[in-house]
Design goal:
- The chain is an alpha+beta fold.
- The protein is 28% helix and 27% strand.
- It is built from six helices and ten strands, in the order ααββββαββααβαβββ.
- Helix 2 packs across helix 3.
- The longest helix has 16 residues.
- It starts with 6 loop residues before the first helix and ends with a strand.
- 21% of the residues are buried.
Length: 247
């Protein structure tokens, strides 16, 4: 199984001391610039003995390899770690095996495409039938078919686990969508998104409409931290920061 490209993955590649220094470099914003070329990140960071060092990160199969122009004879130096963590933070790169990945032997009937326009007051969801490759425009009709099958089955009709999760999601989409019939996008108002997202996280396949990549849902919450700085003359500065958890 392909490893997920995240903080934990980078930490496992690094020596403890280099990880601490690289993480500190990342937190202090020592990255100068970065660009993506295919599955490669080419970047530069601030240096200790010269203005900058050049870093190259590249996937070779399932493994991420690093090169840096700094004098340290270590693949995962603090500069490479800093660039890799920025890559995780900004989704700059991911293993080729994880791009456009489809679930193996899916047991559900649908895949869901997610559209989240910036500053919009709704979340758009498109439902696509796996078998027919058709967009489901009328969720009520799907729910009625399942209900009728359950009635005619006299207790013998049974959905598998992924199908049950899809059904729960479809029921809630239909319940909260702004328009009920003959639509390509089922728009959920922003005040109901917190109900829909946990259900989306349980189905087999959710695709981002912009990137066309499968979304992976994280369960670990971000932390909000308060920092207090007091100057020599007694001035107090309070600042709030969101901290991304290490996977």
């Amino acid at each position: 199984m392909t490893k997920k490209f995240n903080f934990k993955y980078i930490k496992e590649l690094s020596a403890p001391g280099s990880w601490r220094r690289g993480y500190d470099y990342y937190k202090k914003g020592q990255l100068i610039e970065a660009k993506v070329e295919g599955t490669t990140i080419k970047a530069s960071t601030k240096g200790s003995f010269q203005d900058k060092y050049d870093v190259k990160l590249d996937f070779s199969g399932d493994k991420l390899k690093a090169q840096c122009t700094c004098p340290l004879n270590e693949e995962w130096c603090k500069h490479a770690i800093c660039v890799a963590l920025e890559g995780v933070e900004k989704n700059l790169i991911e293993p080729p095996a994880q791009k456009n990945r489809e679930p193996e032997n899916p047991l559900g009937n649908y895949k869901f495409i997610l559209n989240a326009p910036e500053n919009a007051k709704f979340l758009g969801i498109q439902v696509v039938s796996r078998d027919k490759k058709d967009i489901v425009k009328n969720i009520e009709q799907v729910l009625r078919v399942v209900l009728e099958a359950q009635k005619q089955g006299n207790g013998t009709f049974e959905l598998n686990a992924p199908q049950k999760k899809e059904l729960a999601l479809l029921q809630n989409i239909f319940k909260y969508e702004m328009v009920k019939k003959n639509i390509i996008w089922h728009n959920i108002p922003s005040n109901k998104i917190d109900i829909i997202m946990p259900l989306l996280a349980q189905v087999e396949e959710v695709i981002d409409n912009d990137t066309k990549k499968q979304l992976i849902f994280e369960t670990e919450p971000w932390k909000l931290s308060l920092k207090v700085n007091v100057s020599l003359v007694g001035n107090v500065l309070l600042s709030l920061h969101w901290e991304r958890p290490e996977p």
